[in-house]
Each structure stands twice: as C-alpha cells, then as structure tokens.
C-alpha cells in the first residue's frame, strides 16, 4: 500500500464533456442520483449474471444492495453497491476515457442544446457517471473487483486530471463518494434522497437502502436500514395497476430519453411459453439514433434476473427504436449468453413482439392519427427499412406508410389506403414519382397528364424510398407504377400512334444526333412542356442514379439510356418538324435536338452535361430571332 497515488489525465474529448458539465447551469441536476443508482444496479446485475455459471466468484457476498449514506458534517453523499466492482485497469478504462462513436457530434449538440436539456443528453450519451460533477466538486471512487484482494481509489475534481492508487477495501463492490459543492448541500437531506429515489428509481429491482436513526422513549438511538424503493418489477404487475407516471419513469430510466413515450405496450404472451412484455415506442428519435451505433432489442429477463441488456434475437434490426423489457420464465437461466441466444424460443417470442408492435402502430394510426404522423416523421425511415427487409410483414408495413403527394399540402401525408380510396374509376394503378425534394418533383413535366386527369401521384422524396420500391410492387391489388417510366399506361395512346408514324423520319434523325438516348417517342404525358426523358420499366430511375452517384462518390455509375419523349403539340416541336420537312439536313436540327434533350435533363432534376454549350446554343438562337 506504500505506492504513490498516480496522476493521470482524462482523454481530451472527456475533458471537454467534463468542462461542459461543471461549467454550465443545469435545471435537472438531481438526475445524477438516478445515474449513480443505475450504475450500481448494473454492476449488481453483472455480478449476479456472472455468478450463475460460477458461483464461487460471489464469495458469499450475495445480499444484493445499493446503499446511500449521507454525511452532513463532511457534506458527502455516498452510493455503495456490492456489484462486480472494478480492477485498476477497468477504472482507467471506464472512468478516464470515453470510447464512444459519435462523441464529436455529441459535443456539438451539447453545446447548442438549451441548458435544460443538457443533463438529459449527457445521460443519453452514456456518460452518466460524470453527471456527478454537476453537484460535486470532488468525486472519490473506491472499488474492489470480483476475485480481487485489494481495492483501488480514484479521485478527481473533474478538471482534467484524476489520481489513482491502491487502497484497502473490505469487500467486493464500489463506493462512489460525492463531496458536494457548497450550494448543493440539500443532497445530504434524507427526505430529499427519499423523494428522489421514489421519483426516479422506485422500480430498481435491488433494494436501495439508507440508514435511519430512531429514538425511543428512553432516548436510546437505534439505526435501522430503510428500503427506499418499492422494487416492484413493473412488467410483472397487471396493466390496470400501473400508472402513467410509473410507466413514464420506468421508460426514462431504461431509455435515457427525456420525452414521454408515444406508446406503452404491456401484455403477457401466452401459448407454448409464457412471457411478460413491456415495450415502449418513443416519441422522439433519441440522440444515439442520430449519431453512433444503436444496439437493438429489449432487455431480457428470466424470472426477474436480467440476463441481457439488448437481446438482438428478440426484435429485428429495423425495430431498434423500440425499448423495453421481456421477461420469460420458460427460458433456462444457467446457461451462457451464447447458448441462450441460440434458443429457438427466442424466435417465437420475436415473432410475437413484432406482430404486437405493428399492431400497436396500426391502432395508433387509426385512433390518434396526429400522434401517428409525428411518430412517422421521427421513425418512418425505420419502418421503410422494415418494408425492404421484413418480407413476412410486408403487407402490414405497407399499411403504415405515409407519403406526400401531388394533392397533399407540403408536409401532409396520404396513406396507400387513402390514395386507393380516392382513385377515380378510370385510374387503375397507383402512381408515384421519386426525387430529391417535393419542390423538384412537383414541377416535373411528368405530372402534366396526371394533373389534367385529376389522378394523384405519390411523391417519394426520402432517399430510402428508392429502396422500398422493390418490396412495394402493389397495394390492395393495384400496381405501383413510376410516373416517369415508359410503361405507364396513359390515355390517348391511339392518337399518339398516328403522330408516331408521322414523326418517324424526324425521330430517326434525332436518335442519330443524340447518342445518349435509346429512342425518341411521341409523348402522351406532356401537356405544357416540349420534352421529357423516361426510363424503361426495369431501368434505374434518374433519382436512383443520382443517389448511387452520391454513394459511389467520384466512381462512375453507368447511366442508363433513356427515351426522349416529345410533345407533338408543342410549338417548338412543331417548328422543328417544319424545318425538317423543308430541309432534312438543316443545321438547326442538331441544335434543336440538343436543346430539347437538355431541357428534359433539367426537368428530371439532373444536370446538363455541358452548361456552356447549352448557353451558347440558346444565345445563338436568340441572336437568330433578333435577326441581327
Ligand atoms: P454507462 O453506465 O452508460 O456505461 P457511465 O459513465 O455511467 O456510462 O459509466 C461508465 C462505466 O463505468 C460503466 O459502463 C461501468 O463499466 C463503470 N461503472 C460506473 N459505475 C460503476 C459501479 N458502481 N460499479 C462498477 N462499474 C461502474
């Protein structure tokens, strides 16, 4: 024990986070206690889990307990547990570094967030321990890892350095001692601790205790341990007995989210096996879903014993926004995690959970549409991901889709069912158009014919939309068809046949002049514009091409050849025909051809290949019309 305390520096990103924690004013400082208790509880869960396969590690220290002690004289608050504890290496790893992806983004967000939401963000990011520095000017951690004989002491003022040294510790586990700032003395008040535990940590499974001193009539003092939390596992209680607040607090505890959940799903799965389910659908996309990686799957308990924090076998990846708990009494407890993960029962439970999440979303859409819309705005992309991956639930997922359309206002949606419902009798298919934004899509010439017919067109402007289309080929017996593909069956096909014949010689010349296109056709979809480009039924759409180009940055994406459609009622096309009929080798024909093609490229939302040549051609024509 003669060893000197060693001074160590925090890693730089952690320094910045600590700086923000200690130098900003927070409105919910008290969440620090929830974080300390949650860490203590996790440490106990870990210990208990390890002991399932190796009981010897317990060393008879198995009366799980989180103890809170207050010392008003010294202004300290201590949170102790008999969980796994930490070795010296673990202390340096866990309390001196921050090894998380997305740290930089987190810092940026933290800096720009308003003060009231900062501590919540801190919790969400999983730097919960450091929240201690919101109320303490010095934090001491003494800890002894499982199977160790000595302890380790870590001390820091949260200013960039900490010291670490060996120390004596009587038993396994961790004490976190907060030396409270002078203005935070209220956290030594037992009533304050009691009420905070009740509010934030009531359902923690392990007892959270505090010594209570009582005096009898003879003025003899006795100290008894008071348990502060009710320890009721929420998911085991009947739904009718759980209040909204209890659900909310529980959700906040397990998710680190500070918003209320959009939906609580609480039921008992019955049949071949019995399991309790308590799942939450969040209302806002949590921070970790935007940056860094997210672990999917609910917590898995087996008869109230936490065996996995995220059981990925229980929910598909696309449902990674779902938080909660599954407790199954029929699963074996004394096997390794690896063995458990291969248990076929998990697949059965998973199917049940997926069905119930989808069912709940359907209910929400039917009974509280506005809530569903805001949910969809946050998590629609996940459901879309599901649509392209979860073939078994394709139909249900397609019912959950919402899109903007030609007829909706901006940011307003229509579902596929509503779209079909509103289809006029002569419309047989569901039409959509993909593109980067509503603005771009809404002004393309492809919509002209639909506008004139009064048929709606769905706008698919989310990049992910291109990827769901292969799984969304039809809905309610109606085919989904791209409004900019060549196989759209549009009215007035008959008249166009005549025109096609009449224009054939001109089109042959145009085809030879423009080597980027595979065909030239009379358009039945254009009403105001002169030209547009369409692709073959199975070809990549222009939007998809642009997306691939972005993904492929710099690399070549092979462009598919398109079909140029011309509006034979448009004055420019009529003029071109006249020039051609007069002199089939008139030099202007090539200019017209190139300009009609370039217009179409711009209209589909792409860029013309040679903007300077494009401008030159226009200028040349302008000069000609001026007759100079
Ligand atoms: P998180 O709990 O989200 O991982 P924290 O910043 O709260 O992040 O804690 C960092 C790590 O420190 C924990 O993951 C854990 O390994 C360790 N730790 C914190 N408190 C304790 C404790 N009471 N007992 C054992 N390990 C702890």
Molecular structure report:
With 628 residues, this protein is α+β, with helices and mostly antiparallel strands. It folds into four domains: 6-221, Histidine kinase-like ATPase, C-terminal domain (Heat Shock Protein 90, 2-Layer Sandwich); 234-390, Ribosomal Protein S5, domain 2, CATH 3.30.230; 401-483, 3-Layer(aba) Sandwich (Rossmann fold); 492-628, Heat shock protein 90, C-terminal domain (Four Helix Bundle (Hemerythrin (Met), subunit A)), CATH 1.20.120.790. Helix content is 38%, strand content 20%. It is built from 21 helices and 23 strands. The strands form four sheets. A nine-stranded mixed β-sheet has the order 1-6-5-4-7-3-2-8-9, covered by helices on one side. A six-stranded mixed β-sheet has the order 16-15-18-17-20-19. Strand 4 (136-144) and strand 5 form a beta hairpin. Helix 1 (12-23) runs parallel beside helix 4. The longest helix is centred in the middle third of the chain and has 24 residues, at 344-367. The mean pLDDT is 88. Adenosine-5'-diphosphate (ADP) binds next to helix 2 and helix 3.
């Amino acid at each position: 024990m003669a060893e000197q305390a060693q001074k160590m520096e925090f890693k730089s990103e952690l320094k910045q986070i600590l700086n923000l924690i200690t130098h900003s004013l927070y409105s919910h400082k008290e969440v620090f206690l929830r974080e300390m208790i949650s860490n203590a509880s996790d440490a106990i869960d870990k210990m208990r889990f390890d002991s399932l396969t190796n009981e010897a590690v317990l060393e008879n220290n198995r009366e799980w307990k989180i103890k809170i002690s207050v010392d008003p004289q010294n202004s300290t608050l201590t949170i102790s547990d008999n969980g796994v504890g930490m070795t010296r290496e673990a202390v340096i790893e866990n309390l001196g570094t921050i090894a998380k992806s997305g740290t930089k983004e987190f810092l940026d967000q933290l800096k720009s967030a308003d003060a009231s939401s900062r501590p919540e963000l801190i919790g969400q990011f999983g730097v919960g321990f450091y929240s201690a520095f919101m109320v303490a000017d010095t934090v001491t951690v003494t800890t002894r890892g499982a199977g160790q004989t000595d302890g380790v002491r870590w001390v820091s003022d949260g200013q960039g350095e900490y010291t670490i040294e060996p120390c004596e510790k009587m038993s396994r586990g961790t004490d976190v001692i907060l030396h409270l700032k002078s203005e935070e003395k209220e956290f030594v008040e037992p009533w304050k601790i009691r009420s905070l535990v009740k509010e934030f940590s009531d359902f923690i499974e392990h007892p959270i205790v505090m010594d209570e001193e009582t005096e009898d009539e003879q003025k003899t003092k006795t100290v008894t341990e008071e348990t502060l939390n009710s320890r009721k596992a929420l998911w085991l209680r009947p739904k009718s007995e759980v209040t909204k607040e209890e659900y909310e607090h529980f959700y906040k505890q397990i998710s680190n989210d500070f918003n209320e959940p959009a939906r609580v799903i609480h039921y008992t799965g019955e049949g071949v096996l019995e399991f309790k389910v308590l799942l939450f659908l969040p209302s806002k996309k949590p921070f970790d879903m935007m940056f860094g990686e997210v672990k999917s799957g609910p917590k898995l308990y087996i008869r109230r014993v936490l065996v996995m924090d995220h059981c990925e076998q229980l929910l598909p990846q696309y449902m990674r926004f779902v938080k909660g708990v599954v407790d199954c009494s029929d699963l074996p407890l004394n096997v390794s995690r690896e063995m458990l993960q291969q248990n076929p029962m998990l697949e059965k439970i998973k199917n049940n959970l997926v069905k119930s999440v989808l069912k709940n979303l359907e209910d929400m859409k039917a009974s509280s549409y506005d809530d569903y819309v805001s949910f969809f705005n946050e998590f629609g992309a996940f459901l879309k991901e599901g649509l392209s991956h979860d073939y078994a639930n394709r139909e249900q997922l397609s019912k959950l889709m919402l899109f903007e359309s030609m007829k909706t206002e901006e940011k307003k949606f229509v579902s596929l069912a509503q779209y079909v419902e509103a289809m006029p009798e002569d419309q047989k298919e569901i039409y959509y158009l993909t593109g980067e934004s509503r603005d771009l899509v809404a002004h393309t010439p492809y919509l002209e014919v639909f506008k004139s017919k009064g048929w709606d067109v769905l706008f698919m402007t989310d990049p992910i939309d291109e990827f769901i289309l292969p799984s969304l080929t039809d809905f309610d017996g109606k085919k989904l068809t791209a409004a900019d593909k060549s196989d759209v069956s549009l009215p007035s096909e008959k008249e166009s046949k005549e025109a096609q014949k009449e224009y054939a010689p001109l089109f042959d010349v145009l085809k030879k002049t423009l080597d980027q296109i595979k065909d030239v056709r009379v358009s039945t979809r254009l009403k105001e514009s002169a030209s547009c480009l369409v692709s073959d039924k199975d070809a990549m759409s222009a939007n998809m091409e642009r997306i691939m180009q972005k993904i492929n940055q710099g690399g070549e994406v092979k462009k598919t050849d398109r079909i140029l459609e011309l509006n034979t009622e448009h004055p420019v096309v009529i003029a071109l025909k006249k020039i051609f009929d007069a002199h089939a080798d008139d030099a202007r024909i090539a200019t017209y051809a190139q300009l009609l093609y370039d217009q179409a490229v711009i209209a589909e939302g792409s860029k013309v290949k040679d903007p300077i040549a494009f401008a030159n051609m226009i200028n040349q024509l302008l000069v000609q019309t001026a007759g100079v």
